[in-house]
Amino acid sequence: MADKCIIGDAYGDLIIVYERHDTMKAVKVCENSVLQNRFGVFKHSDWIGKPFGSIIFSNRGGFIYLLAPTPELWTLVLSHRTRILYIADIRFVIMYLEVVLGCLVFESRTGSGSITTSFARAPTGHVYTFGFHEQRAASAREDFERTGISTLVTVGVQDIQGEGFPDQFSGLADSVFLDLPQPWLAVPSA
Questions:
Q1: Do 121 and 172 sit in the same domain of this protein?
Q2: One GO molecular function term (predicted)?
C-alpha cells in the first residue's frame, strides 16, 4: 500500500476512488485511461501529482476523491471472496495478539486478505498466511502485490485445521490467528 502523500509522477499507483458514501473502488492509475461513472469521465492523467484526499472534477462537473489505500479502506473495497472481519474487530485482534514491530504472525485461512493486510501494516516483521484453496490464495497474492505488501506476506496453501502448520515453522511464530470452523484442532500445531 502506498505510504506516499502524493500520487506518483509515474503511472501504476493503486489508489482508492471515493465516488459517494456507498461507492468506493480500488483503481490502478494507467496512462490514457479514464474512470467513467454516472458523475462523468475522469482522466487518470489528471490524477498524477495530486495529493491523496484531492477532489477531482469530471467533464460534467461531477467529482470524486482520490484516497490512499490504507488497510481500513482496502478492507472496504477488496473483493470479498469469503466473509471478512472489519477494522474494529481487526484492531482488537491485533491488540489482543500483542502484534508489535518484528513479530512473525501466522494466520490460517487467508480468505479475502482483509486481516492479513492489517497484520502486515501493524507493523509486523512478516505474516505467513495459509489458505486451503489454491485459487483464493493466488487471488490474495495478486492483491498483496497490488497493494505493495507482498514483501511482508507469504501465502501458503495448506489445510491448517486438518494438517496443522508446516513443520518448518515450528516454534517461530510470535502470534497465531486461527480463523477456522474448529480452531481447537489446530491448537497443537500452533
A1: yes
A2: tRNA (adenine(58)-N1)-methyltransferase activity
For residue 109, the one-letter residue type is R
Q: Residue 82 pLDDT > 70, yes or no?
A: no
179 is in an annotated binding site: yes
Domain that holds residue 35: 14-69
Q: With CA atoms as reference, report the closest residue to 111 among 87, 88, 86, 133.
A: 133
pLDDT digits (tens, 9 = 90+) for 121-138: 887 789 999 998 898 889
One-character DSSP codes across 57-93 = E-TTS-EEEEE---HHHHHHHS--SS----HHHHHHH
Percent of the chain with pLDDT over 90: 31
Contacts of 152 (CB under 8 A, 6+ apart): 120, 121, 124, 126, 127
* Other CB atoms within 10 Å distance of the CB of residue 151: 10
Together in a domain, 65 and 76: no
Q: Known binder of ligand: residue 13?
A: no
pLDDT tier at 118, thresholds 50, 70, 90:
confident
